[in-house]
Amino acid sequence: LVYGLTPMSAIGFAYFGSMIASIGHVNEGYRYVKLAKDLVHRFSSKEVAGEVIAIATQTIGYVEPMQTTLEFHMQGHKTALEAGDIRSASLNFNLYCNYLFWCGGNMVNVKTKCEE
């Protein structure tokens, strides 16, 4: 890389890692999405954090326990709202509710969380 990395590079790594994982190379994709999350943290870039977390966390769910994705999606939701990124905030919250259901959450609790 001639000119280095920018905060926007994290989006590229997140999508690339997700694509690599979707064609069967989950561990390699996982490495790229972890890099994307690290770049967001290093640059303290709230503008792209919501989108990176939404995309990266779906790949992380294949390697780490699904319950860990819940915390990541709520973090992505809050960060995206702070940055004014309504699309990523909505995506993270939608994914949070879906993962909460698939993690075997009590349906009354799932409904309450999703209505908040």
Describe it for me?
The chain has helices spanning 9-22, 26-43, 46-63, 66-83, 86-102, 107-115. The protein has 116 residues and is mainly α.
Q: Kindly state the mean pLDDT as a whole number? A: 90
Question: Helical element count?
Answer: 6
Coarse structural class:
mainly alpha
Percent of residues in β-strands: under 5%
Low-pLDDT ranges: none
What Rg is obtained from the alpha carbons, in whole angstroms?
14 Å
Main β-sheet, in a few words? none
Categorize the overall geometry: flat
- Termini gap: 44 Å
Order of helices and strands: HHHHHH
Number of strands: 0
Helix content: over 70%
Put the structure in a nutshell.
Helix content is 81%, strand content 0%. It has 116 residues and is an all-alpha fold. The longest helix is centred in the N-terminal third of the chain and has 18 residues, at 26-43.
